[in-house]
Amino acid sequence: MSKLYLYSIFHGNLNYSSIPPESYDEIIDSCYWPILDILKDYKFKTGIEFPIATLEKIEDIDPLFIEEFRKAISNKKCEIICSGKEQVVFPLVPEDVNQVNISTGKDEMERLFSIQCNTAYINEQLFSSGLVPIYLDAKIKNIITIHEWANKFSDFHEDEKFLPKKIGSKNDDLAIIWNSYIAYQKFQRYVNGEIEKEEYLEYILKHKKKADSCFPLYGSDMEIFGYKNPVLGLKGDGKEIQRFKLILDEIEKKSDLEFILPSQVIEKFPPRDRIKMNSAKFAILGKKQDKFIVTRWATCGRDNSNSNTICYNLLKKIRILQGMQDDKNNNLYISKLIDCWASDFRTHTTETKYLHFNDISRSLSKDVDREIFSWNDKISLEKSSDLILFNPNETDWDKIPFELRLHFRPRKMKGKFEIIIDGKPISSQIEDAKYYKDGSLRSAVVVFEPSIRKKTIATITIKDTGKKIISKSIQTDSIKTPTVELSILKRKGGSISDLIFPKISKLPLIGFLEHGTFSDTKFSADFYSGHVITFDRNGNKFTDLVNVEAIAEEGNFPIRKRLVCNMELPFGHLTKIYYTYQKLARLDIRYIFNFKEFRPASFRVGMLTAKPNSFDKKSLNYATHNGGRLESFTLDKESITQDESSDPRLTNQGCLGSTEGTLDLGDKNIGITMFSDKSLWYSVPMINYHNVGKSFFYRISNSVSELDDTTMTWWKGRKEISFSLLGREKSPENNLKTTKMMFLGLVCFTRNPDIKVIK
């Protein structure tokens, strides 16, 4: 007689978004203790997973629970499953943060329980294949993730359903222990009294096969017993544990059902087949139903774009500090940053927890700022200078354009000035000059192209030339340099008509597709680039496709030219600025919003529509980071509609993590690398791709707000976001190195009391 082996993983998390700290005692007593009691009274075995942050809270509140937990592990009635220091959505967080999170969690878990922890529960069950090397580096052997999402592109035979698989390379792979969101929701419905015991038992038994097989009985939250859970819609009537015991009584009567630990699944059913766990359409696997897609933690919630901006700003400071100290092993601040990136600050977050996020992020920011300025105070220079410039990057800064906003005391600077680095004048240009009443320069942006070796300092002297800054404004719908040709549509908000990088291709890569470009009725409309589309919470649609004046400047601009469009929109004022570079195949688009008072449902900016005749369809692809290593995806016959939704409660079907701020799109010969500094205003890219006859439709949207049941976004005042488009031939490797440096930038300190560096 064949057996059905039942395994489970109970996930506990006191930082659960909707649980206030005042309820922690109740949760431990009502939800956590009953599982340990059941382990003593029944043949039941299970895996239990807590983030380290939760274990520390439990140990502080009820150390007896930790003692009993250790006994259960020692008696092999349960096993500890690793997740990390804190529950974080890995596909939305950069690799270096994820590495510290999982390694710290594993090390602390093994220290607390004196065991080896080989199995990890994927945080929030949101997975990308780029994470595999992180788990392998942490010496994790098995991961637990959702079967239904993997089933979207791996066709499992019914007889092999829930049998472990492998992911990774031939010589270095992870075993996959399957979770099932349908199975754990059935369990939740049963213990909540929504389905009867007989119906639930029948559901379990129908997974029995002719040969021995396994079934994930449960793989989700512990906070479902005796606690009113508004997120899951559970009543918390106090009878959940009793119902659990009743089904255990029935299971123990059946000799063909047996409980095993998650790790024993691998022992009984060794994985043989290596599977693929991603596709161009599903680069990030979901948690359960569609409303639990990764965008929920990216740009929904309590203005998650703001919370994630704060985290990226902290990450930038920490990476700068690491460059100053040259100590990669100092993970203290990264560890604190992990707490700020906790997923439960980003969904149904209580007011208390949201305030706590603000407190810990501000505290961390002050601590890191203090160390950065302390480093500056220790710098001694042989020669005097006005400014010092430090390159914290791992590679040399080789003439990448860099801008500084400077403020001068009255009567200290007449107008035009030169930049002298380490005694040598370099090419520069001045923008946005503002003057005092007496005609002296008050502030300006200076753009220059320094060369600074990695982790070294350069000195800057600012020399007043005594000359006036001369430029002339002209109206135009195009600007051109030797490396960039841009034309815009003034009747449509200054959206991009054509963007050409002439040294890469004579054809425009991005731009406007006019009505009738495609004969397919779905794609027969006008499609623009560089514009804004938003819906408010009442369903009203707004765009920036209005009639505008476009102003360029004539003058001495050796580094870049700019084109400015100003427009009044229903939700506020928008200034859109294009920068075309003289020596680089690069276009920057800067959006400066001044919101009146706006509650967006969805807000997309920096829309890019590819020109289909400019690319080789057969090798069309995109590449990005989703919390780990760079992943590249070929666009094939499958349509991708991340920016659309058939559910009126949602505004999208997913997004990419783009965790290093980059998305490369193109073919084997040419392409564009898009970069946005997430520390200024966080956004995530969304892809819309379709085969249209022998051609294709390919558009990127960048979202700063989306709608689901957690969205509480409200804006008023100034917000600014920029996108840099870097043209490329062949590989995006050089562009990715450049954008990595652009995120960290250069660090500038003043040595002259008459000059202030404006952040």
Automatic annotation (TrEMBL):
Organism: Candidatus Nitrosotalea okcheonensis
Keyword entries, A-Z: Carbohydrate metabolism
Family (UniProt): Belongs to the glycosyl hydrolase 57 family.
Annotated InterPro entries: GH57_Enzymes, Glyco_hydro/deAcase_b/a-brl, Glyco_hydro_57_N
A GO molecular-function annotation: catalytic activity
The protein's name in its UniProt record: Glycoside hydrolase family 57 N-terminal domain-containing protein
Top-level taxon in the UniProt lineage: Archaea
GO biological process, alphabetically ordered: carbohydrate metabolic process
Domain (Glycoside hydrolase family 57 N-terminal) ranges: 23-277
